[in-house]
Structure formats: C-alpha cells, structure tokens
Amino acid sequence: MTQATSARAGVAQEQPPPFHALGVADVLAQLAGDAEHGLDDREARRRLVRDGPNRVASVGEPRAWRLVARQFRSLVVLLLLVAAILALALGERAEAITILAALLLNAALGFASEWRARVSLARLRELAVPEAVVRRDGHVRTIAASGLVPGDIVVLAAGARVPADARLVRSARLSVTEAALTGESAPVDKDAAARVEAAASLAERRTMVHVGTAVVAGRGLAVVTATGDHTELGRIGQLVRQAGDRMTPLERQVETLGRRLIVLALAVSAVVGAAGVLHGERLGLMVETAITLAIAAIPEGLPAIVAVALAGGLWRLARVGALVRRLPAVETLGATTVICADKTGTMTENRMTVARVALPGRTIVVHHGGDPRRARFVEGGAATDPRADAGLTWLLTVAALANDAGIEPAADGWRFHGDPLEAALLVTAVAAGLEPATLARRWPRHREVPFSSEARMMATLNGTPEGRRLWLVKGAPGVLIARSTSWQDGAVIRPLDEDGRARLLEQNRLLAEQGFRILAVAWRENQDPSDDRLEALTFLGLVALADPVRAGVAEAIAHCREAGVRIIMLTGDQRSTAESVGRQLGLPPAAIRSRVSPEDKLEMVRGLQAEGEVVAMTGDGVNDAPALARADIGVAMGRHGTDVARDAADLVLTDDNFATIVRAIAEGRVIYANLRKVTQFLFSCNLSEILAIFVAIVAGFPAPLLPLQILWVNLVTDILPAVALIRDPAEPDVMRRPPRDPRRALVTWRSGGRIVVEGALLAAGVLSAYFWTTWQHGAGARANTVAFLALVLIHPLQALHCRSTHAPAWRLPSNPLIGVSVVTLALGQWAATSWPPLSSLLGTVAVPLADWFVVGVAVLWPVILFEILKAGRARG
Question: Does the annotation count 532 as an active-site position?
Fold first, then answer.
C-alpha cells in the first residue's frame, strides 16, 4: 500500500461516514446495539457515566447580579460614579448621595424591564422529552429520556416526541414534523431503508430522527446515535452561546459620548483650576470648584432619561403586540437596514392549507381565512358553491375518507390530529359542507393499504350507503395518473388516453412550479372482493397544498421598502417553494435564500454586520435561535414560536404578525429622533451652566451657582422637560426616510456647533440676570438665587425650541407636556425659595416680585431669538 493510500485510509478511519449514510447493520455494529433485545441495564449505566445524561446543557442563564452589573457598564455611568467618589472624598456628602440616587434610579429602571422579560436560553432543556419508550433487556419499557444513551433502541409512534437523535432501524408510514429544526413546514416522510448521501443536509436525512421534533403519523424503531449536547438541538445551543451579546448602536454611541464627556470634564477642570490659581484663589477652593464644574459638564440625568425613553417605547410597543426583552433593542429597531426574515412561521402561517383543487380542465381556488366554515371557493374569478359542484364534492369526499387525521372544533378555532396534510384535506371538506364524522359513519372503512415510500399512495376500502364497495385512493400525482384508465367529469366517467394523461401531468407541473405540494385523488369500484389491485382507477383531480402567507406581510414588506429597509427571506424549504412565497410577497429572487441551515443563517447575519448593516432577524424555530442571538435585533414569534427562539430574541411578537415589525421600526425611529432632541436640550443647558460659572469666575465674580444647586438642576430640573421631549409626537414622514447611519453619533460636529451657540446664549441670559442683581444688590444669596431661578426656568423654554431644528415652535403639533413642565418647574422653584427646609438645603432665599420679572426677561430673550432665527431659515 502506498503512503498516499495509507494516508487516505487513515483519514477515512478518522472520519467515518455519518450515521444517516450508513446501512442499519453498520450503524448497529458501530454503536454495539441490538434492535431486538436492546441494551442491558448494566451496559446502559456504563454508557450513561461515559456520555452523560441526555440533556442539553444550560446556555448561560443570566444571574441577577449580572443584569445589575450591565446597568453600570456605560462610561457615562462610570464617570458619574467617579464624580460621586470624589465628592464624598471632599466631604460633599449631599452631592455624592444625590449622584448615587440618580444612578440607582437608572439601574432600577433598566434591571426591572430586562428581568421581567428575560428568561434564560436554558429553556433548550425544556424541549427534551421527559420520557422515552425503549427496549432494554429484551423488554419494552418507559424510562426518563435523560437516561437514554447511544445504542439504545427507542420505539416511536404517532403523537410522540423524538427523545434523542437516532437512526431508523424500521419504519412504517413514519412522518415527522421538523419545522422547528429545519424550517420546512410540511411533515417529512422517514424511511429506514432510504439511501442518503453523506453530504445530505439536515432536511434531507430521511433515515434519521432528531430530538425536538414530533412524530405525526406512522411508527418506527430507531437506535440512538447522539444525546445531550451532541444532538442537532445541542449543536444549535452551542451556536447560540457562540453568538454572544452585541452592543446596540445606541449603546455604542453612548459609549463614544462618554469618552468625549470625560475629555470635556477634564478640560473644564484644568482650565477653571488654572484660571482660579492665576487669579490668586486658594488651590483647595479651585479643586472643589473644578470638580463641581466637571459634574456640571456631565448630564447626570441622561442615563435615567434614556432608560425612561426606552421604557416608554417598550410599553407602546407592547400595546401593538411587540414585547421587548432588552431595553436598548427598542431604539435599535429604528436603525435597522436589513431584515432577514425566516419564511416558515414568520412570513407564512406554518400550517398546511388546501390552496387549489384542480379538476380535469378547471381549477378552483380556495380562500380559507380564519374559519373553514366561512371559506370561499372561486372558479374563473367568480365565487362558486361547492355543494352544487358534484365533481368537487366527490373529490373532497374521497380525500376525507382516505384519511387518518382528525379535526374537531375548539375554543380557539380547530384542533387537528395526525398528519397536517391530511388535516388540511379535512378542513377543506368541512369548508365545502361535508362532515368527516358523518362520512365515516355512512361510509364504513373495511380495509386499508397504508402509505409507503415505494408505492407513494394510500387507499381505503369503504362501503357506500347503497351497499357498494369502493377503493378510495390518494397519493403522488404521477403514480395515480399512470394507474388511471378513466377520469370523472361531473357525473360522467370518460376514458383517459395518453393525451389526457399528458394534459393532467402538465396541470400537475404548473402547480408544482408555483411551489405547491400536490396530492392526486382517484377511486375504483371493488366488484371482485379477491381483486385488491389498485389499477384501472378513475381519476378525480389534484389537490394543491401550501403553507399560506400571513395576512398583511406583503403590505409590511412594501412599507419596509419605502422606509429603505431591505428584506431577505430565509428558509429551509426547497427553492421552488421559497420563490412561490416570494412572488406572493413581492420579493425578487435575489432576496430569497433556500435550504439554509442554522450555520448559514448565522454566517449571513455576521456577513451583513461586517458590511456595516444593522440586521434584524425574525424566526420561530430552534434553528433560528443562533441567528436571533447574533443579530442586532432578534425578533421571535410569540404565539407559535418555540421557547428557544423567544429566549434568544430581543423582541417577541405576541400576534406573530410581521406587520408589527414595521410599527416597531417606526417607534424606534421616533425614539431616536426624540433622544437627539433630548441630547441637544441637556447638553445646551449643561453648557450654559458651565459657561455661566466659568465666565463669572474669570470676570472676578463669585460662582453664581452652589454645588447642590447644580445637582438640583441636573437631576431634578432636567427631568420634566426631557420627558416632554421624549414623548414628542412622531413627524409625518418618519417612515419615508432612509434608515439612519448607525455609525452617526448622537452629537455630530454640526449639532455640536449648534449646541455651543445655544449654550452660550442661554448662559448669557442667566448671566444677564445674575450681573443685574449683583450690580443692584451686591453678591450673595439673592444674586445666587436669581441665577438659580433663571437657569431652571430657561430649561422648559429651551425644550420647546429643541422640538425641531428647522420648524418654529408655533408650526409644530401640540405637546402639552412642555406647558406642564413650565408650570411644574415654576411651582418647584417657588418652593425652593419659599419652603424653609428646601431653601436651607439649596442655599436660596425668598426674592421679591421684581426679581421674578428680571428672571422672566432673562429666560425669554435667548429662546425668542432662537425661534426668530429658525423661522427666518425656514422662510429662506
């Protein structure tokens, strides 16, 4: 043997063919399993010690202390903590306590909102089946599924959950729903004897069953090949863990803003300290003054205001059917540039429905709606009564009788049992006025030929009310067309020749190209009881089934397109099915990705993010969880989605309505626009404080504000006007603008320049009142009180100006909260100067009416100037 051959042989030994590509005997030999006897208890215990219990490991349940720590990771918050420590070191206990109180309020808001909605991804374990039916020591037993080991023989039956990944040993009409893992809405037929390529995708492995899926029909025997974290479900859990948390655009911008604030605070401290020392002031006094100004440079209320803004958006979204599990995700929606939407269960309803009934030479469209009893049948564009259509009624009668599913009314609609495809046939029969239970009584079943992958059809022998016996058949169109020698035209039976078969096959091809799953229906009379051949059939027609598109999705996609948000549809289904759904939704083929795996979805999200896109990912299945966790905003379905998908997501749609995403994006855009208004308001007002204090000190006057008065302004006065701005009404064109650049800072050079100009003019207003009072009555408590009153009352007026950068206030929609903040702050300032406990704390004194007049003039003239300039720009 050559070296190359030996090397190849070595590789082959290291990487044996996967279980789905091996024969049953090889799999049993490799796992040392016995299909008839099963493992003995001693060997099962040994393997359990070796491989561990059949549980998916916890994937990082966030402990309470971690959620608390998350609330303090912003640089702005850390800077305020440093300021509080410095204030405490200098003996300014009140200042330190006030700063810490603001930080605790912000942390409490963030923690409460996240803890309420955040349940860990450890719910992956809940998908594990509590019990399993196995063969052990030659007997069939029911054991805890956690005790399964590779090599165990499990028994599968309709209605059972698959307890572990396993290779089928035997199967009979076995059908499994795998939508949660693969995204394919239709049940998958499984066959122990099928030949499967080693490179086959998860959706194509017909010889395998996987934990987290359910048996909808048939029965089987399988040997366990993987348990716990080694299963497909466990592998997805590992992908979720690897995806990790990402900072949202807003969090990144606040982080950048925090760095700039640190530089600003240090610069202010250095300049003021140096200026004071040059003027001959004591070094200790200048250090305390510099720290006070550094605190003034930081908007202490900003973290709380951001939390309030996002919490408000959270509640508004909840009212329209979207639950937010992480506060910053509210704003991230507004920056979304691409939505990667899972088809099954998100864009479609994840339930099979009869969409067309093709009788020879004609096609009837079925519109079900929410209740099958209110369904509409349309032929040639006009509504038709199915009860008056003998051909349609007979076809649906045969489809309902050659059927093992069940349907019954329930409080929330209809409850189905068995194969979803067969249940869809029953729903359509009910819609046409037929009652399956009545049919079953009047047409008793005598025999059954079960479906097999070889025959690709099933048949039942039923007695008629007149005493005849009929074979009722449904199956693959090609098979039934080849076995038919006649076709039924209403009440007339006509011979079927080769040209007729060609026409039927063409009808089948056209439906298949539209992405439908197609069944054919036929019958023949059993005149000779000894003749069981399913030949010489009378062909009735074709039934085209599909997973219907959700109502409102096409319109929502159109709105997204108008808003500059790109849609990419992802699915585990085949290409033809995906393109059919895409056509109904108005998506070009380039926006459709079919046969995608969980890894494909995760890599697509990563690739888009690397290109600078802000990615929203929607989904409902276990296979969507890694991409949901990685995306900038993960959106899960709340009603029909899996717990795993919901727990990996940032946003849960309680109504499973894709259109709700559009409303959420609009809400996110409004929140960000209002946050920019609040930022302009807070920074311009804080800058006015700094400049007022700095100019007064440089000019040789005492500081116009005391340290506690600065904290009162930043922590109390800022809140009401900022909340009013956060609740500002949406601008009419919010969803006709392109998405904002996520890299664009909250404060740009242009907006920063505007803030500097406005801050300077606001400071001039405050200083005009302070200098006038000092000139008239001298420096002291009265002058400080006037400056304090002016600085507080200028806030709501500046908030009124910050509502728009281009439209004057009188042209904007009404915002009564601004007026409320003016009145409330005026009353608060009256209390701050007239109520002894508060005035003593703040160092204020009662002032006469004349001083209030001075304050009024001082706060009005800068804002009036702003509005005049704005109106002039708008007119120009």
Answer: no
Distance CA 187, CA 423 (A): 12
CB 706 within 8 A of CB 95: no
Phi, psi of 348 (to 5 degrees): -115, 175
Residue in 716, 712, 696, 714 with CA at minimum distance from that of residue 704? 696
Helix, strand and coil content of the chain, in percent to the nearest 5, comes to 55, 20, 30
* pLDDT at 11 (0 to 100): 40
**Could you tell me which residues come within 8 angstroms of residue 311 by beta carbon, excluding any fewer than 6 positions away?**
109, 113, 327
Backbone angles phi, psi at 596, to 5 degrees: -95, 140
Bridge partners, residue 59, by sequence: none
| Euclidean distance between the first and the last CA atom of the chain, given in angstroms as a whole number | 89
Say if residue 306 is exposed, middle or buried (CB neighbours under 10 Å; 0-12, 13-18, 19+).
Answer: buried
> Strand, helix or coil at 685?
helix
Q: Which residues pair with 409 in a beta bridge?
A: 414
Q: What is the pLDDT of residues 327-384, one digit of tens each?
A: 677 778 888 999 998 887 778 877 788 999 999 889 999 987 656 667 899 998 899 9
Place of tokens 């009124």: 800
What is the Cα–Cα distance from 474 to 689, expressed in whole angstroms?
82
Q: Which two tokens stand for residue 770?
A: 């302070």
In degrees and rounded to multiples of 5, residue 166 shows phi and psi of: -150, 150
Please list, in sequence order, all residues whose beta carbon lies within 8 angstroms of the beta carbon of residue 589, skipping any fewer than 6 positions away.
579, 582
- DSSP state string for 613-670: --EEEEE-SGGGHHHHHHSSEEEEESSSS-HHHHHH-SEEETT--THHHHHHHHHHHH
Residue 546 CB neighbour total at 10 angstroms: 25
To which H or E segment does residue 509 belong?
Answer: helix 498-513
- With 0-12 / 13-18 / 19 or more C-beta atoms within 10 angstroms meaning exposed / middle / buried, residue 213 is buried
Residue 858 neighbours by CB under 8 Å, 6+ apart = 765, 766, 768, 769, 772, 790, 794
Q: How far apart are CA 789 and CA 766, in angstroms?
A: 9
Q: Which residues of 392-419 are buried (b: 16+ CB within 10 A; e: fewer)?
A: bbbbbbbbbbbbbbebeeeeeebebebb
Query: What are φ and ψ of residue 323, in 5° steps?
Result: -100, 125
Question: Which residue from 741, 843, 854, 758 is spatially nearest to 800, judged by alpha carbons?
Answer: 758
Q: Which of 152, 165, 189, 342 is catalytic?
A: 342
* Tokens representing residue 143 in the block: 């054991």
Count CB atoms within 10 A of the CB of residue 270.
12
Residues facing residue 461 across a β-bridge? 447, 471
Cα(495)–Cα(485) distance, integer angstroms: 6
Look at residue 688 in the predicted model and tell me its pLDDT: 87
What is residue 328's three-state secondary structure?
Answer: coil
Q: What is the pLDDT of residue 169?
A: 94
Helix H or strand E segment including 357: strand 353-359
Instruction: Give the pairing type, strands 633-637 and 651-653.
Output: parallel
Give the pairing of strands 484-489 and 537-546.
parallel
**What pLDDT was estimated at residue 6?**
40
From the list 596, 597, 641, 634, the residue with the least C-alpha distance to 615 is 634
Q: Compute the distance between CA of residue 457 and CA of residue 173 in angstroms, rounded to an integer.
A: 10
Buried b / exposed e along 119-153 (16+ C-beta atoms within 10 A): eebbbbbebbbeebbbbbeeeeeebebbbbbbbbb
Stated pTM of the model: 0.66
Which parts of the chain register pLDDT below 50?
1-13, 58-61, 113, 116-129
CB proximity list for 775: less than 8 A, separation 6 or greater: none
**CB distance 432 to 230 below 8 Å:** no
Q: Which residue has the tokens 């002058």?
A: 783
Nearest residue to 222 (alpha-carbon basis) of 150, 161, 147, 167:
167
Torsional sign, CA 764, 769, 775, 779: negative
Sign of CA dihedral 319, 321, 325, 326: negative
